[in-house]
Amino acid sequence: LREHKLFGTAEEAQLFTSYQRKVETQTQLKDVQRKIIDAQSAVQLDELKCRKRVLRRLGYTTAEDVITMKGRVACEITSGDELLLTELMFHGVFNDLTTEQTVSLLSCFVFQEKTKNEPPQLQDDLAAPLRIMQESARKIAQTSNECKLQMNEEEYVESFRPELMDVVNAWCRGAKFSQICRMTDVFEGSLIRAFRRLEELLRQMCQAAKAIGNVDLENKFADGSVKIKRDIIFAASLYL
């Protein structure tokens, strides 16, 4: 060290001072990062408590955090909003609907794209279950806010988009792919993705109905899956 050209010079002292500042700054940075992580953990813990409160309020868990039948049904659903779908199932909404109405209503859970056109003017047989679904969504949002889990009620309700309800209804009744394409401005590829996601959701709803022993509802979801799973939408390759 003594043989180094900087040894004993003024520049050595400056470099040493700068290095000390760097080490102190790095130490301070690590302390700040640790505090940020601790703060985020506290926020996540508070959010977790709020979510557990929502689940207890809606009946998905007991006061001792034991999962109820509703909770087990919700666990079967991953392709749509499990809380809202479970609420609709346990309130018997699907029981009074035809297979076509049921599948059309479920399309609101799998289609998330915005379209250029205004939402379609639905016939009463589709508009009525849509209103029931939106009312149930509002109740979930209100319950969440009451449990201190902040949720924008209007945004939550509007996230379930009805643009494909009449399209899905027509497809279930045997319409051709070219016909349903003329009913909407949604791209063909987006239609195919939505229908395939819808078929996946129907299979999960089938399992959920089976979990509660509702054979009629299970058969209805299975029938809906059969009605939509046809033609070019479910072809192994679009080039065939």
Overview of this structure, please?
The structure is a single chain. The chain is 64% helix and 0% strand. It contains ten helices and no strands. It has helices at residues 10-58, 69-75, 82-90, 99-106, 124-146, 153-158, 165-172, 177-181, 188-211, 215-228. The longest helix is centred in the first third of the chain and has 49 residues, at 10-58.
Low-confidence stretches: none
The share of residues in helices is: 55-70%
Helix run count: 10
How far apart, in Å, are the first and last alpha carbons? 77 Å
Structural class: mainly alpha
Provide mean pLDDT, rounded: 88
How much strand?
under 5%
**Rg calculated over all Cα atoms:** 28 Å
- What is the multimeric organization of the chains shown? single chain
Search tags:
mainly alpha, 240 residues, 10 helices, elongated
Task: Compile the SSE list and pairings.
Layout lengths: L9 H49 L10 H7 L6 H9 L8 H8 L17 H23 L6 H6 L6 H8 L4 H5 L6 H24 L3 H14 L12
